[in-house]
Amino acid sequence: MRPTILYPLFAPLNTLKGIGVKYAGLVENLCGCRVVDLLWHLPSGLVDRRCAVSLRSAQEGHIWTGKVRVLEHNAPQTRKQPYRIVVEDESAQLTLIFFKTYGDTLTRLFPVGTQKIISGKLERFNSSWQMPHPDYVVDADKPQQMPQIETIYPLTAGISNKMLNKLTAQALALTPPLPEWLDETIKKQHNFPSFNQALLETHHPRCPDDLSPNSPARRRLAYDELLANQLSLTIVRERLKHQKGRALQSNGLLRQKLEEILPFTLTAAQKRVIAEIENDLHSDYRMLRLLQGDVGSGKTIVTLRTMLNAVECGYQAAIMAPTEILAQQHYETIAGLCDKIGVKTALLTGSIKGKNRQKILTDLQNGAIDIIIGTHALFTKEVTFKDLAYCIVDEQHRFGVRQRLSLSEKGRLCDVLVMTATPIPRTLVLTQFGDMDYSKIDELPAGRKPVTTTVMPLSKIHDVVAALKRKIDSGTQAYWVCPLVEESEKIDLSAAKERFESLQHEFGNLVGLVHGKMKESEKNAVMEDFKNGKIRLLVSTTVIEVGVNVPSATIMIIEHAERFGLAQLHQLRGRIKRGCEASGCVLMYGYPLSDVSRSRLNIMKQSEDGFLIAEEDLKLRGGGEVLGTRQSGFSNFRVADLSLHGDLLFLAAKEAALILAQDKNLSSPRGQALRTLMYLFERDEAVKTYLAG
User: Fold this and answer.
1) Helix (H) / strand (E) containing 472
2) Which of 82, 376, 397, 671 has a C-alpha 20 to 30 A away from that of 521?
3) Cα–Cα distance, 483 to 504 (Å, whole number)
């Protein structure tokens, strides 16, 4: 259903001139397999090849362009010697060096006595100028063949800049004049050129300022991409909001019982979020909502409170967690409370086998289980519910969209809540979770004390171990986190196994080890020993990043902290904020320390606000893997950079809402142009949704 006007741009690369199967494969690895992918492969620099100075005034290491006369050829005496051609301008001589020659190619290209215009990088050798392999050589009477300013692109092995310029020129020539989809007021306000003009200016920069992501041309293209993104997400959200669901409204008796037995009072933020979720559950439409809450903000109790809506109505609810450790923690919290109010719960993970597993599956199918907590095991074919009405997906970013849907499809008209303890910057909420409604717990329970964070070099590790021994002798428990499981030959880091063995000499049987390569049963056994205090010091990899709940553990030591992302450091530090005791985190770094790593550690030292840390993480990473793990289902923008174009994103979000309010079916001339925009940036699914009504 793509508009015919875009067909030339979505043609395969091999339809371009001068590109065979081999080079098409190389270009595909660099930027993509279609003509349009060349348009989104943006320049990174430019070379000024205008004739400016004589050889006498030229600078070593710089590009020089000038008119020269060919004086003589010096063919090599052996295969290891280069071919030399001596040329001169009006001020000095220059030797052209060629390490590969093919027959009489050079004698035909450089006849003695002829004049040429050459361009390339100058080098000094024995006080004389030389130029290895000139970039360009043209006849002196054809100066128009020498590019005045050459665009430089990011390259890959086997692809030259000259080739990429030629291919991009063809892609630009194939780009048809597209209808204007932007509001004229916005164009004038931001000094935006037309889309076609923006493409030309981006790929033909005239000065370094044109290469900036904040040049008018690049901002125009970034805004187009963000507008396509926001339009598509708004369309999907509107469609979801009108999907028929079932109202989960009941007498509230179980929720009342829960409040009576809770040993604490809910925070204002928890109450607000519960009201937002329950408002969705009470409606006749299906819920799809994102719940954000910082480490220790009390998301589990919020989910239990809202799941009781479904149970009171006689339906079932489910929580899916990414790891057995996190699923076990949810189960322990929820089951302890549910037992007291007469609600049946169960835990289903991959390690539960045999008769126990079969009983859970049977009870789930006949309705004897009200709330099930589990891992990926929940969406296997063998799991069937009597009547699943509400499902919760924890640590949403660790699951693909397909996995999330496969769980909700096990129910009839199922409401879905996805939640994360990793605070997400507002820009990512808009661009990646824009199809969902959004709730945020931005308040910690009363009594939680701040963590004292210290930053120190690894050279002081003996001081840290000595201080840790004093703390453990006094009854404290602690984590020691390492970034690797085994020693790497390429990266000289202390592995968890090696650190565990060295700490055993100091702490004996009081130290335990968990890492991702252990069997789930082994991991669980070590964690159990840590929870009951048999193990006082737990050495681990980031397997403990999410969900481990040991309130008596109040010390966190992170080795090679400079190797971790901000969000990951924040999650790890959150493991020692589970109780009301004062706690301390030591971030140990190795040298050399980059500016970004130094900034990251300083932010951790200064702030515990996960939402502030997430925003800073976005700035430091430039829109990369902000959540500390490669995101399945997280689309990367081709032009827009969320760390630089946040203002355009918020403008695009407002504009998308206004457009759809005024032209719901995008049927006006501008609406038709906006459909073309969404196809151009491959937001096809949203367009198809509207076309289908």
Assistant:
1) helix 461-473
2) 397
3) 19
Cβ–Cβ under 8 Å, residues 76 and 83: yes
668, amino acid identity:
S
Tell me: the pLDDT tens digits for 661-672?
999 889 999 999
329 pLDDT above the threshold of 60: yes
Among residues 496, 497, 527, 529, which one has the least CA distance to residue 510?
Answer: 529
User: What are the structure tokens assigned to 453, written together?
Assistant: 């964070």
CA max distance for the chain = 101
Give the Cα separation of 185 and 200 in Å (integer): 22
Whole-number Å distance between alpha carbons of 167 and 313: 63
| Spatial contact of 227 and 183, defined as CB atoms under 8 Å apart | no
State the pTM of this model. Answer: 0.78
The SS3 of residue 409 is coil
pLDDT digits (tens, 9 = 90+) for 146-194: 999 999 999 999 999 999 999 999 999 999 999 999 999 999 999 999 9
8-state DSSP, 377: G
Angle at 582 between CA 576 and CA 588, to 5 degrees: 55
Question: Does 626 have pLDDT greater than 50?
Answer: no
Handedness of CA 601, 556, 483, 642 (dihedral sign): negative
Least confident of 68-77, 164-173, 625-634: 625-634
What is residue 544's three-state secondary structure?
helix
Burial class for 326, CB neighbours closer than 10 Å (0-12, 13-18, 19+): buried
Six token digits for residue 493: 């880091």
Alpha-carbon span 432 to 290, nearest angstrom = 11
Kind plus residue range of the DSSP H or E element containing 623: none
Long-range pairs for 268-273 at CB < 8 Å and ≥24 separation? Answer: 268/443, 269/297, 269/440, 269/441, 269/442, 269/443, 270/297, 270/298, 270/301, 270/302, 270/441, 270/443, 273/302, 273/439, 273/440, 273/441
Q: Per-residue pLDDT for 581 more than 80?
A: no
549 in Cβ contact with 329 (< 8 Å) = yes
DSSP codes, 260-296: HH-SSPPPHHHHHHHHHHHHHHHSSB--EEEEEE-TT
pLDDT at residue 45 tops 70: yes
CB 35 within 8 A of CB 13: yes
| Amino acid letter for position 375 | T
22 half-sphere exposure, CB direction, 13 A CA radius: 4
Share of the chain above pLDDT 90, in %: 63
pLDDT bin (cut points 50, 70, 90) of residue 565 is confident
